[in-house]
Amino acid sequence: MTAVDEADLRSRVARLSLEQKVRLLTGADFWALFPEPDAGLRRVVTSDGPAGVRGETWDERDTSANVPSPTALAATWDCDRVEAVGRLLAGEARRKGVDVLLAPTVNLHRTPFGGRHFECFSEDPLLTARIGVAYVRGLQESGVAATVKHFICNDSETERMSVDVRVDERTLRELYLAPFEAIVLQAGAWAAMASYNQVNGSTMTESPLLRAILHDEWGYDGLVMSDWTATRATEPAARAALDLAMPGPAERFGPWGDALVEAVRAGHVDEALIDDKVLRILRLASRVGGLDDIGPASGGLGPAAAGGQASSVVPPGASRVPVAPPAVDIPAELRATAAASFVLARNEGSVLPLDRASLGLVAVIGPNAEMARTLGGGSATVFPPYTVSPLDGLRAAGLDVAFAPGTLGHLRTGAARAPWLLRPDGSGPGAEVRFFSPSGELVGSEQRDAAVFRWMNGFEAVGAPGEIARLEISCVIRATEAGVYQLGVSGLGQFRLLADGAVVFDETLVMREDADVAETLMAPPQRLASLDLAAGQSVAVRLEHDVRSSPMAGFGTFLQLNLEVPHGSDDEEMDAAVSLAAASDVAVVVVGTTAEVESEGFDRVSLALPGRQDELVRRVAAANPRTVVVVNSGAPVLMPWAGDVAAVLLTWFGGQEFGNALADVLLGDAEPGGRLPTTWPVSEEGLPSSQPSDGVLRYTEGLFIGYRGYDRDGREPLFPFGHGHGYTSWSYESITVPPDASGVCVCMTVRNTGTRPGREVVQVYASRPDSSVERPAKWLAGFAAVDADPGETVNVGILLPERVFQHWAEGGWALEAGTFTVSAGSSSASLPLTAEVTVK
Ligand code: BGC
Questions:
Q1: Rounded to the nearest whole angstrom, what is the distance from the C-alpha of residue 735 to the centroid of ligand 1?
Q2: Which residues are identified as catalytic?
Q3: In 3-state terms, what secondary structure has residue 544?
Q4: Cis-peptide into 353, omega within 30 deg
Q5: Which of 295, 627, 745, 787 gets the most CB atoms within 10 Å of its CB?
Q6: CB of 48 shorter than 6 A to ligand 1
């Protein structure tokens, strides 16, 4: 940034009164910043992130491209691909009027129990950093800001609003801060988010770490916003390097607004700190094209002096006006990315890829086969335009497919949907919502296509102005077959459900008191009632809700009409699935979790697959030796049957094109490109806990998370970090580390020894035998993907950054001079090549 650009920004700050400046420091509403015409600042809009760009509304009318979950992106180990995903997301942001994406999440996979594990990239700081840098570059090169979050140590969810994470300085530096550091210094992130929790006794929105590390050490010139409602105290947060309290307005969420103006007037907070915060807001706005030309100001250098251009303040490397991201074939890109993220963890007897020419009946079994689980829960959820389930994908590939669910994998009843859910006027699937004022007047209505309802910014945006006291949701439920239907609602507060005019229930639903706000909003209590319906019977349903009876009304109104359709008993369903498997050429069993198991707001208490899915896999595998298990979870689950099935394919939450990508990989039209970005445990033993004790969560394992912990303890994982098969085989032939003035470059030769073209992720790990410093046995030092045809030999050079050999000691980065070992191979547990490198 040039001096003139800085001067322009400063002159804009100088035009504003204290009240105007402080007003900018809290959001205008749930997602947007305040506009300020006197500073040429337009309304700047934020949105979650990271699995798609939600936009300002959160329902089926405003759909978003749903990319594979962040762990899946990391599993590609492919920075170019992730950068392209960043560009795709930038295009989505621009389409939806979003300037600032609340992503990426670069907290670490400290423990698989962490509820937002699916939303983070990896257990390894270097892989997280590389993938995060690529994601941020892709977004920001198209003029959309990234928000690297959550700074810092929000690695699990239990008591996340208050928990005090105690972590030693070296662990903080070498693990948890490392991705943020790389993203700030290498990708120049334009925004960061301070987390809810405390670290070493200090609430992060007030923490001295914000200024000491971000500003003073890393020279960060971007903006720090709070996580939503994480700003708690007026003066401590204002004195810290927190620039923006979200959400707003201050009158509703606090704690700045008038209280901060008074604190400045009373001399408790220096106005220069306020100016710096406003400067950072304007800088962010300028970067995303949010500043207009306001003409020269007295005493400052106006835009005319800066060349007469609007948005004259630009970061190095970015263009003056945000570039439109290139047009992308979104389905094709999401399909290829999902396939590139799938990890083929086991492939006994090379059952995969399936040979289309000789393939007979394919049994598609399991709860997640029909219901595509494409994303995890919480603020990261978006409404995709469509989802391709595994069953859809395999059918679309033209295979001879038969389906049996086997068992129900969900813990809660899902939303009512087509073909059972119809609008009252029969005009299509969906429902009608009517909004009533406190005096009972009908003030608005809308026709909806689905039965999930979320209003966060009040009801104005949906055409219902003023205060809304009551909602009425009407629909028709039509039975496709005779049986018992479970109909009901999930939400908070008072609900009355009527079927054909008769009251089914009239009840107030309450949440457990210790539930996190995300869990309360996204997974509130459910109330269901049974309706015995004849085939073809239609019931007129009306749900009435007293909006003000919800304790979360000030935050938003979230509710859902639920419907479970008749099904056989679990035993009947399982028997049917096993018989189908026995009569089929191959059985594809899709097991997994749901957004209600893996979500923001709470941690998992068990890593086991929900329900009777383990039993289902065992019985199917016993009935058909060609059983391929597809695991549709965002994070590791226990797989006690892993050694008894022919193949295991880990597919994460695969985004909207999940099923098509699955068909591509199962049939060998695409390589299973993924390698594990996190260790897959064999059991729950020995894993770090996410449960605080007396409000304190101690990171007692220190540096030893993930594979570092397994190595130290001599424990065997189920599948090691970095593991994953392709459809060809490789030999690692040679390694050298030639002297190079510019750094350590590891040069290797690898050969495709199989019969198919393929892609290999070559991984390099460093270690330091006989170190005088406590260290992990090995740590990831670099990686690169190579493509080769059968028989082809490829040379690959991987440059190792200096930081790979450094450790944190006594307040700074230190280098223990001497000889390190570098090992290369296809996973952390398979490293056939070794060389030594002497570092001075
Ligand atoms: C989450 C953030 C998210 C924010 C806004 C918070 O609860 O922790 O990751 O960006 O909500 O939705």
A1: 45
A2: 227
A3: strand
A4: yes
A5: 627
A6: yes
- CA of 228 from ligand 1 middle (Å) equals 6
Best of 150, 600, 602, 603 to mutate for ligand 1, by most ligand atoms within 8 A of CB?
Answer: 600
Please choose, from the candidates 205, 210, 207, the residue with its C-alpha nearest in 3D space to the C-alpha of residue 229.
205
254: left (phi over 0), alpha (psi -120 to 50) or beta: left
Q: For residue 360, with 0-12 CB atoms within 10 Å meaning exposed, 13-18 middle and 19 or more buried, which class applies?
A: exposed
Give which of 408, 402, 410 is closest to 624, Cα–Cα.
402
Cβ(435) – ligand 1 distance below 6 Å: no
Q: Is the CB of 227 within 6 Å of ligand 1? A: yes
Query: How much is the pLDDT for 323?
Result: 59
Listed as ranges, residues in the chain with pLDDT below 50 are 1-4, 298-321
Q: How far is the CA of 782 from the centre of ligand 1 (A)?
A: 31
Q: What distances in angstroms separate CA 395 from CA 369, 371, 392, 664, one per listed residue?
A: 11, 14, 5, 12
* Interatomic CA distance for residues 119 and 138, integer angstroms: 18
- Alpha-carbon distance of 349 to 540, in angstroms, equals 55
Type of residue numbered 150: H
- Kindly report, residue by residue over 152-188, the tens digit of the pLDDT: 999 999 999 999 999 999 999 999 999 999 999 999 9
Residues ≥6 apart with Cβ < 8 Å to 203: 197, 230, 232, 233, 236
Asked if residues 53 and 66 have their Cβ atoms less than 8 Å apart, the reply is: no
3-state secondary structure of 585: coil
Determine the distance separating the centroid of ligand 1 and the alpha carbon of 50, expressed in angstroms.
10
Measured between its terminal Cα atoms, the distance across the chain in Å is 35
Ligand 1 near 518 CB (within 6 A): yes
Q: Which atom of ligand 1 is nearest to the CA of 154?
A: 8
d(CA 404, CA 370) in angstroms, rounded, equals: 9
CA distance 387 to 672: 20
Integer Cα distance of 96 and 62 in angstroms: 9
**Amino acid identity, position 242:** L
The pLDDT value given to residue 648: 98
Q: How far apart (Å, rounded) are the C-alpha atoms in residues 623 and 427?
A: 46
Dihedral pair phi/psi, residue 346, rounded to 5°? -150, 140
Q: At 74, which helix (H) or strand (E)?
A: helix 70-75
In this structure, the number of other CB atoms found within 10 A of the CB of residue 208 comes to 11
Q: Are 97 and 138 in contact (CB under 8 A)?
A: no
Tens of pLDDT, residue by residue over 579-599, are 999 999 999 999 999 888 999
Q: Are 369 and 387 in contact (CB under 8 A)?
A: no
Distances (CA, A) of 596 to 45, 107, 485: 28, 21, 22
The answer to whether the pTM exceeds 0.85 is: yes
The whole-angstrom separation of Cα 559 and Cα 553 is: 11
Tokens of 291: 């500043």
- Residue 512: count of CB within 10 angstroms of its CB: 8
DSSP for residue 69: P
C-beta of 157 in contact with ligand 1 (< 6 A): no
Of 116, 187, 828, nearest in space to 516 by CA: 116
Which residue lies with its CA nearest to atom 2 of ligand 1? 227
**Which of the listed residues 29, 31, 33, 48 should we mutate to test ligand 1's pocket, taking the one with most ligand atoms within 8 A of CB?**
48
Peptide bond into 179 cis (omega under 30): no
**Ligand 1 atom with the shortest distance to the CA of 517:** 7
228 CB near ligand 1 (under 6 Å): yes
Structure token digits, residue 60: 């089926």
Distance (Å, whole) CA 77 – CA 62: 31
Adjacent-strand bridge partners of 646: none
* Mutation choice for ligand 1 from 53, 102, 107, 163, CB with most ligand atoms inside 8 A: 102
Number of C-alpha atoms within 13 angstroms, CB side, residue 549? 17
